[in-house]
Design brief:
By secondary structure, the protein is an alpha+beta fold. The chain has a single domain (4-151), classed as Nuclear Transport Factor 2, Chain: A, CATH 3.10.450. 32% of the residues lie in helices and 41% in strands. It contains five helices and six strands, in the order ααααββαββββ.
């Protein structure tokens, strides 16, 4: 399965990061981390969760704060639980059309602000969410994802 909307969204990551910053391309740590987030989004678009497992730290943590009716797995700790939660959360969604509004990276942190619309696979109910996602890296591996979602 290819998630077209997610795949198209991934193409915007690096361009949005360098937009407006003439020195962005010489920030090698930040470019690497933005590239890793982009690669993870591309892997999700292809349902290639093994690729995600290769870039996460053994102790990676996931925390999602969202409205009660959003059916996501909201927390996970450790690489196997993290990858399983990401897989299960994305299989709950259909017709995703995420749009990245901004990306900021500083050192080991990448922050993505996005809006996503689509449907929940279970009941076909539509959703329209804004989210802030913070990705923290440690020694080149993803160590934590913290996401806050709200209805648009």
């Amino acid at each position: 399965m290819v998630r077209k909307g997610v795949e198209e969204c991934a193409r915007t990551y690096e361009g949005l990061f360098v937009e407006g910053d003439p020195d962005a391309r010489i920030k090698s740590l930040e470019m690497r981390n933005v590239g890793t987030v982009k690669a993870m989004v591309e892997a999700i678009a292809r349902d290639d969760f093994d690729a995600i497992a290769r870039v996460v730290d053994e102790g990676v943590r996931l925390q999602i704060l969202a409205p009660p009716d959003v059916p996501f797995i909201r927390s996970a700790e450790g690489a196997p639980a993290f990858v399983d939660a990401v897989r299960r959360n994305f299989t709950m969604l259909e017709a995703q059309t995420p749009v990245v509004l901004s990306i900021v990276a500083q050192g080991e942190a990448v922050v993505v602000i996005l809006r996503e619309q689509g449907r929940y696979a279970e009941d076909g109910r539509g959703y329209d969410l804004h989210a802030v996602q913070e990705f923290l890296f440690r020694e080149g591996k993803l160590a934590r994802v913290f996401e806050i979602c709200a209805r648009s």
